[in-house]
Write a structure and sequence with these properties.
- The protein is α+β, with helices and mostly antiparallel strands.
- It is 40% helix and 16% strand.
- A five-stranded mixed beta barrel has the order 5-6-8-10-9. It has a two-stranded parallel ribbon with strand order 1-2.
- The chain starts with a helix and ends in a 5-residue tail after the last strand.
- The N terminus is likely disordered.
């Protein structure tokens, strides 16, 4: 074999190995709730079980009731289970629900109820029923849905495009912005709305657009316009339409491709959830803190604090700068808090120059 023939053979072999590796990777791709892991019929049967037993504590709309049961849908629920597995959620329901009397419902009914909870959180149905096997469910990841998951249909966006002609007078014929109104697509638009919920964008349009004539378009028409704007900004269409349900829209996040895995940059305004602890050298710090998430708001809303309460702790540590007198008094020591401030990392340490520090739980056990 000549040197040229040897090189061709080696390259062919390498190409074969690459294709085989890609095929194996595709086969091993982890499933998520966006893959249609339950059937619509199973969820419908689960509604009957939920209404008969679970609604007493969690409410008929799954939004919870104070002192009885937490919400089972929307941003707080998904934030609590985000990055966990469906197996963990199933074990929680199977072994502890209904609270105090877990044996009053069969596993078959409980798995149907779980399918109904997934449906109510906007995850799509598939052709197969959700199994009651823990090992199978451990392979299904729970992730908050967002604009990369096909949350609107092309038909809905087409309707929005027709209605958006009303927007062009201020925002320009290509929606690129004018001296009268900002751009509705491109980097400037995304910088303003990323890392927030679709509901935040919808509420802005529903409650304030068009200026001076807000009632000239119905909320449904305005939601179609949201779908159009999302498509114009490169987000993909999917099989299901957006709905005006605030909980469902709150659970849908506007993020960059990849969900911001690169992390928050230095000097960005971020939000963090962690445990407040005294520090001998610097005064106060956050321990067991979540990864910093970029935010535009220097202080949290009531809804953001509710989400923070359910958000799991992490492994980060942050020194705190500009701590106010109330915090220095030690009143919040040992409590789970939501902190916001300017992030600064340098090698092995990270600081937050605080703009807000709010307690979200009486202790820091979860």
């Amino acid at each position: 074999m000549t040197r040229h023939e040897w090189r061709v053979a080696a390259m062919a072999a390498l190409a074969g190995l690459t294709l085989a590796a890609a095929s194996l990777t595709a086969q091993q791709k982890p499933k998520t709730l966006g893959d249609g892991v339950y059937s619509a019929d199973q969820a419908q049967r689960g509604k009957a079980g939920f209404d008969g037993v679970c609604a007493r504590c969690h409410g008929a709309q799954l939004t919870g009731s104070q002192g009885n049961g937490p919400t089972l849908k929307g941003a707080p629920f998904l934030a609590h289970w985000d990055k966990d597995t469906l197996g963990s959620l199933w074990v929680k329901i199977r072994d502890t629900m209904p609270q105090g009397t877990p044996g009053t419902l069969t596993d078959e009914v409980k798995i149907q109820i779980l399918a109904y909870v997934l449906q109510q959180n906007g995850f799509p149905a598939g052709s197969a029923e959700l199994p009651g096997d823990v090992n199978a469910l451990e392979d299904i990841g729970i992730q908050q849905r967002g604009v990369w998951d096909g949350i609107f249909t092309n038909a809905q966006a087409d309707l929005g495009k027709q209605s958006a002609t009303r927007c062009q007078g201020c925002h320009g014929p290509e929606l690129g912005g004018t001296d009268r109104a900002p751009a509705l697509k491109g980097n400037a638009f995304l910088a303003n709305w990323e890392d927030g919920s679709v509901n935040r964008l919808f509420a802005k349009i529903r409650d304030g657009m068009p200026p001076g004539n807000v009632d000239s378009l119905t909320p449904d028409v305005k939601l179609n316009i949201v779908a159009h704007l999302l498509r114009e900004n490169g987000f993909p269409a999917g099989p299901s339409e957006l709905t005006t349900n605030a909980d469902a829209l709150d659970s849908l996040q506007i993020t960059k491709k990849g969900g911001g895995d690169a992390g928050a940059p230095n000097f960005a305004l971020v939000s963090v959830v962690g445990c407040l602890a005294a520090d001998r050298s610097s005064g106060w710090k956050l321990i067991n803190a979540s990864d910093p998430a970029v935010t535009r708001d220097s202080a949290p809303s009531a809804a953001a604090l509710k989400t923070a309460e359910a958000k799991p702790l992490g492994r980060q540590t942050f020194g705190l700068v500009s701590v106010d007198a109330a915090t220095r008094s030690g009143a919040l020591a040992g409590r789970k808090v939501e902190a916001r401030g300017l992030l600064y990392r340098d090698g092995t340490y990270a600081d937050l120059n605080l703009t807000s520090l709010k307690a979200v739980a009486a202790d820091c056990t979860k």
